Structures are given as C-alpha cells and as structure tokens.
Known about the structure:
- With 584 residues, the protein is mainly alpha-helical.
- The protein is built from 14 helices and 2 strands; from the N terminus they run βααααααααααααααβ.
- Helix 3 (89-125) crosses helix 7 (269-303), helix 4 (133-152) runs antiparallel to helix 5 (181-211) and helix 5 (181-211) packs antiparallel against helix 6.
Amino acid sequence: MSQTATHHDHGTATQGHDAHGHDSHGHGHHEEPGFIKKYLWSTDHKMIAQQYMWTGVAMALIGGYLAYAFRMQLAFPGKFIPAYGYMSSLQYNTAVTNHGTIMIFWFAMPVLIAAFGNFLIPLMIGCDDMVFPRINRLSYQVFLLSAIILIASFLVPGGGFNGAWTAYPPLSGNSEYNMAHWGSTLWVLAVALEFVAFLLGGINFITTAMNSRAPGMRLWDMPLVVWMIVIASILFMASVGPLIAGAVMLLFDQNFGTFFFAPERGGDPVLWQHLFWFFGHPEVYVVLLPAMGMSGDIIATFSRKKLFAYKTLLYTVFGTGIISFFVWAHHQFIAGIDPRMANIFTVTTLIISVPIAEMCFLFIATLYGGSITLTVPMLWGLAFVGEFLLGGVTGIFLGASGADIFFHDSYFVVAHFHYTFVPIAIIGFFMGFTYWSPKMFGLMLDETLGKIHFWITIVGFNMIFIPLFFTGLWGDHRRIYNYNNFSELARPELQDLRIIATVGLLIMISAQVFFVINLVKSYFVTKKKAGDNPWKANTLEWQCPSPPPHGNFATMPNVYRGPYEYSLPERESDFWPQNEPPAA
C-alpha cells in the first residue's frame, strides 16, 4: 500500500511567484526591528502569538496554584497547606471561582484560539501577516489589561470575587451574599475586556482566512485547524453579545443601584443564567474546535494519510456550531424552567453529541491502515480524542433532565466538565506546542523527556477525576469547604477518594517539571536544529524557514492542484514536487 501525502487535498504547494506571475514581494529583505518594536510593540503575528501563549501559561500557573490550594483543603480539611497556609471558607470560594475563570478565559481561550490562531493562520494559508496587524496588537494589549485587572481583584478590600465562575446573582450582585463587592466588580470588568480582545482577534482571523489565501488555495484547501479557528471565532462573535450586555447590567446592579437581577426589587436572577449560558455553551465549542483541528491535522501527519472525509467533517462542524446555540438551558434544569422546555433542551443536547462523536470516529478512520508514528505530538493527539470521549459520554447523563436533577452540582458534574476541558485546554496546549514548537523556535524538543512528561500528566489527570465520578455518584456536593462541618455530608468513607484525587493533582503538577526541563535542555543546552520540515508534513507553514522570518516567506507561495496524488518520498529534500504550476 502506498503511503499517501497527508491532509485532505491532492494539491501541491510550491514557493515561487505571485498571482500575476511576477516575483513575490521580497519579504525576506525586511529590516530586523529593534528590541522594543520586536518584543513589546510588535505587529508581527508570530510575536503576538507568543505574547498570548506565554501570558496564558503564566495565568495557568496561577490557576493551577489555586487548584492545588483548594484540593489540599478538601483532602486535609483545616490543616496547614504548604506554600499557602490555612484556608478560610471565603478563601476557598475565591480559589474555586478564580481557578475556573482563569483556566477557561485566561488560558484555554488565549492559547488555543489567539496564540495558535495568530501563529498558524498566516503561515498555513501562505500570507505574510494578519490583514489588520495593528488591531491584532491592540487585541493582545486589551487582553493583557484584562489579566492585570483580574489579578488586581485579589488585592482590593474583601479579596477576589468568590461567587463562582458563572457569577450567578445574588452572589455576584449588590447584596449581602456578595462578600467581595470590589473584587466582583473588577472580575466582571476583566471578563468584559477579555471578550473585547477576542472580538478584535476574531475579526482578524476570519478576514485573513477569507481574503489572504495564497494564489490557488481554495476554501476547501485550507488545513482543518484554520477552518476550526475561523468557525470558533464566528461562534464567539455570534454568542458573546448577550453576555456582554449581561455583564454591563451586572456592573450597573453592583455600582449604580439598578436591579436587573435583584428579585427583591422585581429583577430576575434567572435572566443572568440565560444570558450567561447562551454564551457559555457555544463557548465550549469555541475552545473545543481549535483543539479538534490540531488533533485532526496531527493525526493525519503521523498516520501518513489524508484526513478521512475532510469535507464531511467540515459539514459536521458547521452543524455543531448551529446546534450549539440551542442547548444552553440544559445548565438550568433545576432553575425552575418549564419542564416542557427541559424536554426540548434534552433532545437538542443529545443531538449535538452526534456530530462530536462523528468527528472522533473520522479521526479514528484516519488512523485505520495508516503508517502510524507515535511521536510526542501524536501521543497528545490520541490522548485528546480518548479523554474527550470520556467527557462526552458522561455528559449524556447530565443532558437528560430527569437524571440531571440527581447529578446537578455534584462532583460527577465536576469530573465530567474536566474531562471535556482538560483535554481541550491542557492536552490541547501540549499537543499544539510539541508539534509546532520546531517551527516557532527552530529547535527540536527531547522526545524521551516529552514522553515522560506525557505519561505522568495523563496518569495524574485520570487519577484526579475518576475518583470524583464516584464521590459525586455517592453524594459529594461541590463547593463544600469542609465536609466535616455537615454531618449529613461528611461521608468519611469517601475521604480516601478525596485524598486520591488530590494526590493525582500533585502528580499532574509535578509532571510539568519534566516539561520545563525539556524546554531548558532543548533550547539552551542541546539546541538541536529542527530544519524546515522535521515532521515531513505537507501544509504551507513547513515551507518557510524555522523559525519564520518577518514576512514569513522569502517568495510567496503558489498552491495548485497536481494531476495525481503524490507518494511520500523517503528523503525530506524530495518531499515537495517541484513541478511548475500550470500555465494561466
């Protein structure tokens, strides 16, 4: 069996001339910018991608530290927590709230959409930069400001916001239940600014992909990850408006005496739930789709096959995006909504599981009959599919309104949610970073250290959340600071599982030491050069130098459809056929 070139098209790319047959723009002759312009005030999409990435990683360190603190409190309630101290109930609520907030809004979104979107889209479609480079820079600056405001919310009187990451009133409103008024105001302001940043970024991603493709590249020729980031940006822009409006209303409730969500004055707290979840559930797919796209492209590359049913997969994604706007109320089955509406949202929730399952099966079909190489990126790609499937299967129980009454606000929900979001955010980040870091930095990571890091991380992750499925089934309610304070909830027979989950977190955190060692060793000690195409992939980003210079391509690429499907060569230098494109 011949090993066919990866991806979805019979197309071939070559670097050469522009659409008019003239020499390209000479992007290889740009002058090197100074330090401030290059690192602090850059409009280069690759530098902005790194700014988003490392800011997101820094925020993830804060989010991970908060998770460590409250898990230690749950495992050893009332005990001294190393590197933290004693934890009060208010501090516990603040830690839980901001852990969720940070990992979703300040890690998953900036890394998966903004960082990889900025880095990959121009390179993969064969252009030199984003269409609106200054708006691109502004988007990061607004995002950085939002992160600073969120961190500042910890420092005001009353401490950080502690009303849960969903910010349900009255816990987030101007009421006696809001224990951190200024912290909640800064939290809402930070979230609103972060959304503005991603609206600006989404405009760039969509416009660039639609208008700046290399000559000859059709929409159906774009790599899967580009499509996924574009569709995610469209979903975000279509869903975030109601939540921004709700955030403004909540700010007014907190500071100007309005009562949109205050029931004692005629407001409706359930209105906030509708506004939040109308955005909140499409948001799951906003961060899922880029990770899905990365997984598909990586699996195709290391299976040495085209992506199975590429167009079918895209039609599935379009359907997923549309259906995602009709499932939000499954988060509100016990909020007092009409049971007849609950039945409708049960059906839509079960329907949306079908296209997601289809995507996973298409990835599995891509693996079938392939020449599979288990590199570190491939391991992360396979783990993403496997772990996310566990999250999807357990979500079917929660999507049924009758079953959700039992499961709601238990640790079963926590485990399910993390089996969807940890593969998306954590595994998705490592999957993308280990695959494209040779292109970003021009250096190869150590495979052995990478595999050690992978296996310890995966073992630790499953050790955290598999026990929580059982504690949730047996009655552990979430957001309980100390179960010993409630005799009916104490359940001492479950304490061993709570401790196991915490040990799993410590293992998962310790695994990241191997990632840091790998970075230091690979980038500062061994410095093994990556070459332009170390994975022998056939998307355009691998046709420019590693790392790409300012302007990306010395001569801008043409993309054309060859007369037949090329076999993979044995020599990297022969990987790209040098046939001249057909005459105009």
